[in-house]
Each structure stands twice: as structure tokens, then as C-alpha cells.
Amino acid sequence: MKSFLKSLMMALSAFVLAVSLIQYPDQSLEASIRGLNLWLEIVFPSLLPFFITAELLIAFGVVKFLGILFEPLMRPLFNVPGAGSFVWAMGMASGYPSGAKLTARLRQENHLTRIEAERLASFTNASNPLFIIGAVSVGFFHDPELGMLLAVSHYLGNFLVGICMRFYGRKTNLRKSQPAETFSITKAFKALHDTRLEDQRPLGKILGDAVLSSLQTLLMIGGFIIIFSVINKLMFLIGITPLISKGINLLLSMIHIPESLSVPFLAGLFEITLGAQMMAQTENVELLKQVILVSFILAFNGFSVQAQVASILAETDIRFLPYFFARIIHGIFAGFLTVLLFEPLYVNRVKTNLHELPVNGLPDAGSFWFNVLKFCSHYGPMITIITITVGVFILMSRTARHPKA
How far is C-alpha 36 from the chain's CA centre? Predict the structure, then answer.
């Protein structure tokens, strides 16, 4: 009966989506283009170099090297192998869903047990600095000083999630608990060399595989961004969003959050960018309350990113539920840290820089993150198109050399 109801709900949801697309074609197209532009200008060019670099680092044995080097740190802190340090660093630098992609890759190569992979995925899927500081702080709130508060709350909250999740699955872990290994550079270099020798692929093949693997993941990410952008818009048009926001408003009122932020918060639960933008555009609301909810939705990742992660993890035996549970914990940590750090990391910094609260001016044209965001907006589409073209040529070349029988 439960399976039948699930099938019925899935079919009904798909039917409602199809009818809504027919009923609101113009708005659906507009939302689709918005999602496409976000992927084309920001997501693809910002994630591509990290994805390709990560594939190369894995192939050349650098991950094995870091795994042995950082084992004495990662095992006591997070109860994961040292290779998790690579995933953690790349996840923070490049943003979601790279943490999930790299965790799945390490699991496929048996660097992690399933429990260790689930622990690692729970705290390595973070937002990147470009999005937090460039897009949200500078682009939406027009306030570069806000970036420090959001970034520290986000990454410190992620660290605390990792500490909490180290206790997850201790009774069912397939790998016996081992004491942290001693620091050994010699052993780390030997592991790097052995890994490189084991990979028999020529350099050209390694580079081609890195590009194709990255393209495949980024195309999947683009599809999720576009479809969730459309779903978010359609939910608002057919009246689902206002209905759900009434229930959310009851929860927000318990922590004295105004009703006007319930719709932006709900939008952020589905798609982070839209929610953060709507939050910043809400007028006559205390800035701290806006930032608390933005911190939560950044940590929660949004259902759009969660769907991307679920799709990546589905290629392995890593379960999605621990990751989802960790997102809720991260959201609570990030919101709480925002309250604690608002005065020292924002109010005091603004006073020091002779700004007024709240800041409603234009972004600082000399800001580093503003310039990075501007570069991506101008050259992102060109980078995306060129890379896809290169990927197509690699596929055509390989198909020509090895035609199917």
C-alpha cells in the first residue's frame, strides 16, 4: 500500500508539473532562462577548474599523499581517513556539490567505507566563497562587510557538523577503529608514486577523462538548477508557496522572525540563489533576522543542491539520509553562530570602516569578490561554450578511434 501511494504521488506531481507548464508557459520560460544564466555565467565556470583539478590530483596520487599526511588530524577530529582532508578543502573552495562528487569518487575507489563516506559527505558539501561573498553579500545585499560574517558562520558550522557526525555509525562501521597513524612524509610520497604507477593511462587520456567527467557532472547540475528554478516559480504561481509559507510563518514567529520573510525563506529551501535574493530585497526588516535565515538556507543547501547530491550519491552505496540530517544540523549551527558573531564580525567592522547600519549602498567596485563576480558574468558563457565544445571534440575523437561494433 505504501509503495502504491508513493507511485500515485510521484505520478500526480509529474502531472501537476506538466499542466502548470502548459498553463504558465511565459513564466516557466523566464524561470528556465534565469536558471540557465546562473549555470552558464557562474556555476559552470567557477566549478569547472576545481572538478578537472580534482580528477587530476586523484589520478596523480596526490589524494593518497594527502590522505597519509593528514591521517593524524582527520581521524581524531572527524573519524574519517586522511584523504577526507582533500575533499574537505576542495568542497569549501569550489562549493556544492563537489564535496559529494569527490566523496563518491573516493568511495568507488575503496578509500572509504560506506559509513566513513556518509560522515565525510555530511560536512564537506559547503558553499564556495565566491557565492557567499561575491553573489550574496556584494551582489544581493550590496554589503561586502556582510561576507565575513556569513562565511565564518557557514564554515565554522560545517566544522561543528563534522565533529558531531564523527559519532555517526560507530556500532555499524565496517572498518575497525584504528589509531591515527604517525606523520610520515616518506610514506606519503611512496603512496603517491605507487598510485601514479598503477594508473596505466597516458597523460592525454587522463586529461580527456578529467574533462569529460567534469562536463558530465556539470551538465547534470545545470539540469537540476533549471528544473528547480521552474518548479519554484510554478509553486508560487499556482498558490502552493503562499499556502506553505503560512505554516512556516508559525515556526518563524516562535523566534520573532517577521511574516514578510516566510516566502523568501521557503523559496530558499528550494533554491538558494532565489531565496537569498528575495531575502535581501525584503524591506523594513531588521538586517540580523535576514542574515540568520540566509545563513540557514546556505547551510541547508536547498532541495535543488540536495537533489544534485542525491543523484551523485546514487552511483554508490552511500545513503542520502545522513547528509540530509546533517544539513538541518548545519542550518541550526549556522543560524546560531550568526547571532553570536553578528556584533564582533559585522557591527564592529562596519563602525571601524565608517559605514552606517543598515548598508543600502552600491557594491564597492574595487572589491575583489565583486570583480571576480563581474569577470564570471562577462566571460563565464564563453568559458562554458568553449569547454563544452572541447568535450564534444574529445568524444568525437574517441568514437572515431574506437567505433562501436
Answer: 17
Higher-pLDDT residue of 348, 161: 161
For residue 175, the 8-state DSSP code is: S
pLDDT tens column, 339-392: 999 988 888 777 666 544 444 444 444 466 667 667 777 777 787 888 888 878
> What are the strands, taking DSSP E only, across 129-174?
none
Separation between Cα atoms, residue 218 and residue 362, nearest integer Å: 32
- The CA R_g of the chain, rounded to the nearest whole Å, is 22
228: Cα within 13 Å, side-chain hemisphere: 26
Sign of CA dihedral 138, 141, 142, 144: negative
> Other C-beta atoms within 10 Å of 1: how many?
5
Percent of the chain with pLDDT over 90: 19
> What's the pLDDT score for residue 47?
78
**Dihedral over Cα of 16, 17, 21, 27: its sign:** positive
Cβ neighbours of residue 355 closer than 8 Å, sequence gap 6 or more: 145
State the Cα–Cα distance between residues 271 and 55, nearest whole angstrom: 28
DSSP 260: G
Q: Do the Cβ atoms of 208 and 398 come closer than 8 Å? A: yes
Structure-block grid coordinates of residue 38: 546562473
Residue with cell 535574493: 277
Greatest mean pLDDT among 83-97, 233-247, 252-266, 333-347 lies in: 333-347
Sign for the CA dihedral angle at 278, 281, 286, 292 comes to: positive
- Provide the angle, in degrees to the nearest 10, between the axes of the packed helices 302-313 and 272-281: 170
For residues 301 and 364, the model is more confident at 301
Q: Is residue 254 helix, strand or coil? A: coil
Q: Which residue has the cell 502552493?
A: 240
pLDDT digits (tens, 9 = 90+) for 165-205: 988 887 665 454 455 556 567 777 787 777 777 777 888 88
Q: Where are the domains of the chain?
A: 51-170+178-401
What cell does 268 get?
530558499
Taking the CA atoms of residue 201, residue 116, residue 317 and residue 103 in that order, the dihedral angle to the nearest 10 degrees is -40
Q: Is the pLDDT of residue 153 over 90?
A: yes
39 secondary structure, DSSP code: I
